[in-house]
Amino acid sequence: MPGRNFIAPSLIIIGLISICCSPDLKTAAFQTAAENGAAANESFRRCDSYVHGWLKLADPETGLIPRNTKDRFWNAQDSAADNYPFMVLTSSFTDRELFEGRMKEMLETETRLTSRINSLPDTWDFTKRDFQAEEPDLESIIFGSSEYIKDGLLPLTEWLGSSPWSERMISILDEMWEQAPVDTPYGRIVSDNVEVNGEMLQVLSRVYWKTGEAKYLEWAVRLGDYYLLDNHGKNHPTRDSESLRLRDHGCEIVSGLCELYATVNFANPAKKKEYQAPLHQMLDRILEVGRNEHGLFYDIINPLSGKVVRPGIADTWGYTLNGFYTVYLLDKTEAYRTATLKALAAVNDNYRNYDWEHGSSDGYADSIESALNLYNREPVESAARWIDSEIKVMWSKQQEDGVIEGWHGDGNFARTSIMYALWKSQGTSIQPWRQDVKLGAVEQDGELYVSVSAEKEWSGKLIFDEARHKTILKLPLDWPRINQFPEWFTVSDSDLYSVGPDSGRTLGSFTGKQLQEGIELILNAGEEKRLVIRKL
Question: Does pLDDT of 291 surpass 60?
Fold first, then answer.
């Protein structure tokens, strides 16, 4: 489980008392926790079905999953970046045997078969049993590698911690920068593509803190200088460009520059001072000409003329607002927080059952994630109602065999469903998972109310979340990040917590570390147990 390198935690056995029939404890908080448990349970059941549906589509010889139900090849930017990682993440919750077995085997096979330029992956054709292209194309390989890292391996690392997947991520990242083919006045960079460079800014900013290795910050600063300080190269996103894409495959540069800004705020204040004016200039111009009346972003704008090039509304609106809110946290620029609040307040009244991405599940996934990540920081109540409504629309697109739409974007269905489930459980989870076991929680005034129930007899562990931005990534600040899994109720290693029913007595006190490793529960058939967790 998160950050524990797959070592089974020691079990803390406590004599829980069943209170399933106690009317005195049927408070509104516990009722909400039980309702949240039903929602989280549906999330995981759907994700588990998705995994098994896609496993049936795997290539019988390699075991790798195809790009979609028609193409017979594996590629880094789609199969590996968007689909496979969330099969891994799902199985880490719902099927540990599958997680430790076939999911790791798929990684080992992918690494062995597809690594073409040292560790950099290239497209593998199932029919040819060879690389799809006769000769390697470095630009294409770098693009796929960047997508694989940012969209897939980095989110896995943020939840799992150090693992074979984080090792694969670092290996690919180092090789990308070893190959870096683009010369600039600031040093070589991996690409002149804004999507790739935006992804690299996000990855390098986080990997720098996780590893403590200066080279990652050095590479990120090259990109920051290239976009914010180069007055001759015409690279500033709003000052120099006639086209700024604020939707997916372009918006990454905005939040990426903001993540670097957060990093140098702590690691290199002099560089932060250099970046401040051009970064704020970018953000202010986007607010000025890039939003509709509800505060959501247009797909593509011309920041020089102020005209809207493509008037559709970006489903990734929150990905861009992540950057604004990050800079608000650092510089206290109230307009950036106001922009976030405006968008969150608008979605419930104006974007119910909206036609994101022409009705695609992927559009709903990105938009729901947009709201969830920002709601974690600014709990606008109407936004919570919108998330609850729209997740059901996304779920309705899943087919009976578990597959959603039959392309690599199906993985984003699972990614967002897991984010939703962790909100409804406040970061708690159970092992072993079973379809009939429901776990939900709600936090009120610093206390966590937990409901756990099962249709059949069950025994296992109740596991609590940690402040992963500190313990795994070692970030100095939990700034909002694309594809992160927000933290809800977290416990700290050395702090003490009481666990028990809300009846004036406790069942025991435990360190945060013990709660992270898991406390043992036993449920009888049809039983619900309700617990309150308090920090002592």
Answer: yes
Strands lying side by side in the sheet with 73-74: 73-74, 124-125, 130-131
**pLDDT 10s digits, 125-136:** 999 999 999 999
Q: How confident is the model at residue 335 (pLDDT cuts 50, 70, 90)?
A: very high
pLDDT in tens, 479-518: 999 999 999 999 999 999 999 875 445 568 999 999 999 9
Residues, the chain = 536
Round to whole Å and give the CA distance between 426 and 179.
42
3-state secondary structure of 444: strand
Query: Would strands 120-121 and 115-117 be described as parallel, antiparallel, or unpaired?
Result: antiparallel
Answer whether 371's CB lies under 8 Å from 387's CB: yes
Residue 504 vs residue 94, higher pLDDT:
94
DSSP labels, 377-409: TS--HHHHHHHHHHHHHHHTT--TTS-SSSBTT
Measured distance CA(346)–CA(379) in Å, rounded: 13
Contacts of 329 (CB under 8 A, 6+ apart): 262, 477, 479
Closest CA to 420 of 409, 430, 412: 412
Number of helices (H), then strands (E), belonging to the chain: the values are 18, 17
Angle at 36 between CA 35 and CA 40, to 5 degrees: 125
What SS3 state is found at 351?
coil
Strand order in the sheet with 244-245: 244-245, 298-302, 307-313
**Helix extents (H) in 28-122:** 28-55, 84-94, 96-98, 104-114
3-state secondary structure of 469: helix
Distance of CA 337 to the CA centre of its chain: 21
At which residue do the structure tokens 């938009």 appear?
Answer: 367
Cis peptide before 23 (omega within 30 of 0): no
Cα dihedral 390, 392, 394, 398, rounded to 10, equals 180
- DSSP H or E run through 499: strand 496-500
Distance of alpha carbon 321 from alpha carbon 308, whole angstroms: 19
Strand 307-313, strand 447-454: pairing: unpaired
Percent helix, percent strand, percent coil in the chain, to nearest 5: 50, 15, 35
